[in-house]
Amino acid sequence: MSYIYLILAIVVEIAAVVFMKKSDALTRFWYALGGFISYALSFALAGMASEHLEVDFVYAVWSSVAILAIFIIGFLFFGEKLNKLKVLSGLLIIFGVIGFSVAGAIY
């Protein structure tokens, strides 16, 4: 069940970031409210996921998958720029999460 909580936390985190982007610096009330509620729910779900999973793994996966998803969403839907440094940084994030996963499996 912890992995389901983790997946839901990631999805809700992504929704929160999109809501905040759409809120235009918190000037559009309903988008801002959706962002605040989504962030609170995402934190709660991440906390629930960490009950049976190691917290460093939960946080690494939760934050990195959300960052990578927002990177892709920003490029595809918000017209944000794509460059080599952003792609390299995304790859480093992926390798970092793999490192956390392997380290948790070894010990």
Termini gap: 22 Å
C-alpha geometry = flat
Order of helices and strands: HHHH
Low-pLDDT residue spans = none
Task: Tell me the total number of β-strands.
Answer: 0
Q: Give the overall average pLDDT.
A: 93
Number of contiguous helices? 4
- Which structural category fits the helices and strands? mainly alpha
Overall domain count: 1
Content of β-strand: under 5%
Query: The biggest beta sheet, please?
Result: none
- The portion of residues assigned to helices is over 70%
Rg over CA atoms, rounded to whole Å, is 15 Å
Describe the structure.
The chain is mainly α. It has one domain (2-106). 82% of the residues lie in helices and 0% in strands. Helix 1 runs antiparallel to helix 2.
Describe the secondary-structure layout.
Blueprint: H1 2-22, H2 29-49, H3 55-77, H4 84-106
Question: What would a concise description of this structure say?
Answer:
The protein has 107 residues and is mainly α.
Key features of this structure:
107 residues, mainly alpha, 4 helices
